[in-house]
C-alpha cells in the first residue's frame, strides 16, 4: 500500500486550511491513505478532507496519548517523541505533499530530501530547490500519484 504524506503548519489561514482540505479530498478520491502529524492546521484540514471522501487517515502523534489526535484520524500512532516523530512521518510516506509550513515542515522536507523522497510543494515558499512546485491541490495530488505510479 502506497501512502501519501501531507506536511504543513499547525497554525494556518483559512485559505491554507481549505487548500489542505481539498488535497485530502483528492487523495482519498484516488484511493490512497493520508498520513500526517495528526494535530491541527494543515494536519487537521487534510484529515478532514480525506474523511469527507471516506479515506483512510493515519496520524503520527508527537505526544503520549491518542486523545491529542484531531477528530478525523482513523489510526493514531502514539510516539512520545515530540518533533522527532517527523522522521517517522517521512520514512513511512512514499511521497510527500507540503502545504505551506514553517520550521517543522522545513525539517520534514530536509529529512525527505536526505532520504530520497519526492516532495511536492503547494503554497510552500520554503527555500528548497528540490521541492517540485504545484499551483493547485489538483496539480499537487496528480504529481504525487504520477510519481507513485512510475515508481513501481
Description:
With 152 residues, this protein is an alpha/beta fold. The chain has a single domain (5-151), classed as Rossmann fold, CATH 3.40.50. It is 41% helix and 19% strand. It contains five helices and seven strands. It has helices spanning 14-29, 42-52, 85-92, 103-114, 137-151, and strands at residues 4-8, 34-36, 57-61, 75-78, 95-99, 119-122, 132-134. Strands 4-3-2-1-5-6-7 form a seven-stranded parallel beta sheet, with helices on both faces. The mean pLDDT is 95.
Compact overview of the structure:
With 152 residues, the chain is α/β, with parallel strands linked by helices. It has helices at 14-29, 42-52, 85-92, 103-114, 137-151; strands at residues 4-8, 34-36, 57-61, 75-78, 95-99, 119-122, 132-134.
Notable traits:
alpha/beta; globular; Rossmann fold; 5 helices; seven-stranded parallel beta sheet
Number of domains: 1
> Pairing-aware structural class of the strands and helices?
alpha/beta
Could you give the distance between the termini? 12 Å
Number of strands: 7
- Going across the major beta sheet, what is the strand order? 4-3-2-1-5-6-7
Helical proportion?
40-55%
Shape call: globular
What is the third-level CATH name, the topology? Rossmann fold
Q: In the CATH classification, which architecture applies?
A: 3-Layer(aba) Sandwich
**β-strand amount:** 15-25%
- The radius of gyration computed from the alpha-carbon positions, rounded to a whole number of angstroms, is 13 Å
> How does the major sheet shape up?
7 strands, parallel
